[in-house]
Amino acid sequence: MNLPPVDEQRVLRSVLRLLSTGAPRDPAAEMAREVLSGRMSLRDAGNSAAYGEMITQAVADAVAAVEAASPEQRAEAEAALAGAASVLDPPPERPHAPVEDDWDESVTSPWDDR
Asked: Which parts of this chain are annotated as the region Disordered (predicted)?
């Protein structure tokens, strides 16, 4: 099975957005909100006393789950992650090019001969 590459940044943003919806005093939700707001980098969160142990444990659990998974389960998980990222963090829409109908005739300039 040929899977599309996983955009790790989109997956990370999606996971952080999902985590950020937790309760106000939930450490994972608080950390996600700090990272998404730009007040803290994920690296800083991992090195902090407040969130470091939580992140270390979550990464250890994820590594153990990946190592225990079969190649088929890994492929399914990657496909699910790619799909989740597309739903939770869709790519930005390209702005449409202006067409002649977009011109606003009511806007005038002092230099117009009207």
From this structure: 75-114
Q: pTM for this structure?
A: 0.57
Q: How far from chain centre, in Å, is Cα 99?
A: 33
Look at the alpha carbons of 64, 81, 24, 56 in this order and tell me if their dihedral is positive or negative: positive
Total count of domains within the chain: 1
pLDDT digits (tens, 9 = 90+) for 17-41: 888 998 988 999 999 999 999 999 9
In a domain, 43, yes or no: yes
Neighbours of 35 (CB within 10 A): 21
